[in-house]
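Handout, section B. The chain below has 285 residues.
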Amino acid sequence: MNDILMQIRSDLPSFSKGQKRIANYILESYDKAAFMTASRLGKMVEVSESTVVRFAVELGFDGYPSMQKTLQELVRNKLTSVQRIEVTNDRMGNQDVVSTVLQGDIDSIRMTSEALSRAEMDASVQAMLKAKTIYIVGVRSSASLAAFLNFYLRNMFDNVRLVGSTSTSEMFEQLLRVGPGDVVIGFSLPRYSSRTVKVMQYAHDTGATCIAVTDKPDAPAGKVADHVLVAKSDMVSVVDSLVAPMSVVNALIVSLAQEQQTQMAKTFEDLESLWDEYDVYERVE
């Protein structure tokens, strides 16, 4: 993905005056340029929208959207928190924040539905049903996804372990006996936590089956996983949007429940009795 910046630097002397303005802006502020429309980028550097489109074609893209997508992939995993705030403010402008954020989450779920392999979901479900032990790994903001999955899987299986710690070494200690026949589910979304990837690599090397919930198959965790559940997430924001990954978790839980309908019915029947006896939930008249 760095190739586009290298190409722009290499071709810079041959560009027209207007194209040089575009090139210099991208080289200096590609984190912002990646999320601008062709029209807005043109206004920013004082050239026409058509000049911006021709610039993209000159670089070998079939149009501006293709170049923009390449730039977005380049910056998505590299933005610092300060850069995220700057980009968010730049993208929002005077738009209604609630509508913009909700629409972004809707788009993430739509893209996830299109990208998520049903075969990979089925394979993940079957692996979990056969597992000796299911380990769930997620740190930083992804820890909430891991905790949510753990909450439901504990009611479905007796062999579930949530791996959580503030240090990589302690996480390895919790996976000391992982091996063939076990399943490790790791949540890894941009900016990718090195701890999660290292733990999954370790588990994979022991012969365990690794399932990665990440934003693309060639993400760091995806490369060491046996199965990848793609969950698109717009991480170029002040907060990490986990709406789409949470939907994937929901789909995984429901898929597992569908495979064990009789057992699940009995389990939740017992749980309902327990919850009633100890007033776990408020009674609503």
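Note. The two ends are 58 Å apart (CA to CA). Compare this with the example in section A.
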